[in-house]
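Q: I have 142 residues here and want to know how they pack in 3D. Can you give me a structure?
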Amino acid sequence: MDAAHDAELKKELNATLDARKELGEEYEPALVESFLGKIEQQVDGVVERRVRRRLAEQQMVAARPPDRRGRRSDDGWGERFGFGIISLIVAIPLSAIAVVNAGLAGLLVSWAGIVGINAVQAVRGAHFGERRASGGYMDRDE
């Protein structure tokens, strides 16, 4: 929330506290409920603005023209990059376990598995991008 919302909330809180002083403790639950309702409205407004902004960003990405290969510039690059980073992070303890338990042969087998999984992920990502660009099942909603 911005400073205007903060100032408004502070003003509302002060008004609620003043009303409690004037009305007494028997009205405290109603006053608190009213104040929380106002906070909820402001939070809902912030969430709604964020959702609208996110939807607008997604629409802009969907409206981007495809590149030479018929793929949009964001077709899974982040997913592939993240998968590669995670596999490297996981490779460290796997390598240590493999070397301790099976020596060089275990290390080679574990790295062959890591490379294989990354190769399958890369091929799957490329295949998915081709299906999307060629009007596959993913383009029905667009």
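Q: Anything worth noting?
A: The radius of gyration is 28 Å. Helices lie at 3-23, 28-63, 77-133.
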